[in-house]
Amino acid sequence: MHGVYVPSSRLVNLELFRQINKMALKKNGFIPSSAPEELKKVLVAVASVWGDTIEDMEEFHVFPLKGAMTNEVFQINWPTNHGDLHQKVLVRVYGKGVEVFFNRDDEIRTFECMSELGQGPRLLGRFSDGRIEEFIHARTLSAADLRVPEISSLIGAKLREFNNLDMPGPKNVLLWERLRTWLSQAKRFCSPSTAKEFGLDGLEEEISILEKELTQGYQEIGFCHNDLQYGNIMMDEETRVITLIDYEYASYNPVAYDLANHFCEMAANYHSETPHILDYSIYPDLEERRRFISAYLVSSGNEYSDAKVEQLLSDAEKYTLANHLFWGLWGIISGHLNKIDFNYLEYARQRFQQYWLTKPLHLSS
After folding, report:
1. pLDDT recorded at residue 107
2. pTM of the predicted model, to two decimals?
């Protein structure tokens, strides 16, 4: 793992950060003198762990990072006591209302476990509204990177490694329970007209149909990322090592669902002028998907057959239906909770449209 690391036994106590004024971090530049004392103390404490003495708050440089749709993420730099070098950390401020989507305590435990396994950025500290993470010295992938065969194969191999992780806790499929919970929440937030527009009253039946049709005894269940969009994938340019980040939605699910999610994300570009618009004309073609699944299977070192590739390819296409409902419901709920500049409802509308458009292609009944 690249970058800096504070051993878990030396985690900074960041409860002082609990009343952070996020407006203090909105602009590129310095931590202003008007920032809360709690914020200043925490940043100084984190720096001191690495032997850096901060005399002036203007030594901290703040850079908001774009592309997050649930949290607000910032890079904070400061000069070290070792010449011209600069230290970096990533500060993640949790979005409001995210407890609707997942249990934050479970997510923190997952992050800590992943950190200990060396599978992602290390946890440097926690506070009530977020956490401080290791800053990984690798670049976040772009939408275009997912179409590069070499990079795509590296992602496939890394996803296989991720799916094979033996994580603590129950190993039951969470997908169907989560869909039903989110449907209930979406109905609670929506007006009757919006609920009718999105056809929410009929989705309980749709979820049941999918669960019955897609659940097969032969399918492999693994620890799934469930949100493998390009912004959650980083690559070291020198070593070509892939790191998966952001495990908020991670859980045990059929691995075919994780593949389906990644394929669906290839229709998105969250850094365009219209980040909510999905372009399904660039959904990966059959050869791209087959190549990705082949790289996924061969990476485990086990023998695999063409029949195995074709079966997983077929299963993944069917699970795109569940994926459309998953993120469609997410979009409806987020549109009522999140203030990030993103057209969540239009995003949801597209996911539901794609569900109804492709359902006849993937289900026999």
Report:
1. 81
2. 0.83
